[in-house]
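Narrative of activities, Objective 1.

The group set out to show that a structural description can be obtained from nothing but a protein's sequence at a throughput compatible with the screening campaign. Below is one input-output pair from the validation batch, recorded exactly as produced.
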Amino acid sequence: MAHSVNVRISGQLRDYVDQQTGPEGLYESASEYVRELIRRDRQTQQEAGWNWLRAHLQPLADSPDDVFIQAGPDAVIERARARLLGKGK
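Output recorded for this entry:
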């Protein structure tokens, strides 16, 4: 079930939306335009999350095998806890 959200805009923002909608614009209505903007923003946020994760994991993937230390879940949690408390590297 779709829920409705009302947004009031005026001045330059309203003028801009009017340029983007109607017979001369890319979108048929302000609602269609806003939905597209929300979709794009959502996609951008998801991509930013993946890019952050990739940036932090890539150095690990590029490291030589002899750099890795085998550790169980308890050791990983303890090491993370120590870092959070400022007691680790």
